[in-house]
Design goal:
By secondary structure, the protein is mainly alpha-helical. The protein is about 45% helix and about 10% strand. The chain has five helices and four strands, in the order H-E-H-H-E-H-E-E-H. The chain is globular, with a radius of gyration of 12 Å. The protein binds a DNA duplex through helix 2, helix 3 and strand 2.
Length: about 100
DNA sequence: AAACTGACTTCTC
DNA sequence: GGAGAAGCCAGTT
């Protein structure tokens, strides 16, 4: 299985109402320094609805990019709708950060 | 095969 | 806490 598939698999595990950082996913996938690559995978996102790429944020909780129509704004709305806590323009990681169970 | 690109992260100032 | 710079990875051209 390729690193990419692993990333998608992990991302798909993020529970509703929680978020994970690119670096965190990269680490779980085996490459702690592949956070950047992870971002690309989300951008591609071949498993659109199956993989909740909107639950992936930057290390500081900031919402970066979003390919789907609506962009960042839409992404933020979705997260709020799912119950994710926000701190201004950033996600409150101290509360909504996902802990791999 | 080499170079370019980007939805990242971390360190300094 | 905001701005700039350097490092790292996989995919695309």
């Amino acid at each position: 299985m390729s690193f990419r598939d692993t990333v998608y698999k992990i991302t798909a595990k993020i529970p509703k109402g929680k978020v994970a950082t690119y670096g965190q996913i990269a680490r779980l996938a085996g490459n702690a320094k592949a956070a950047r690559a992870v971002g690309m995978f989300m951008k591609k996102n071949p498993f659109a609805p199956r993989v909740p790429c909107h639950r992936v944020v930057a290390s500081d909780g900031k919402l970066t990019g979003y390919s789907a129509p609506g962009g960042i704004v839409k992404k933020k709305s979705m997260l709020i709708h799912e119950g994710v806590m926000f701190k201004k323009a950033r996600v409150d990681l101290s509360i909504s950060r996902w802990s791999e169970s």
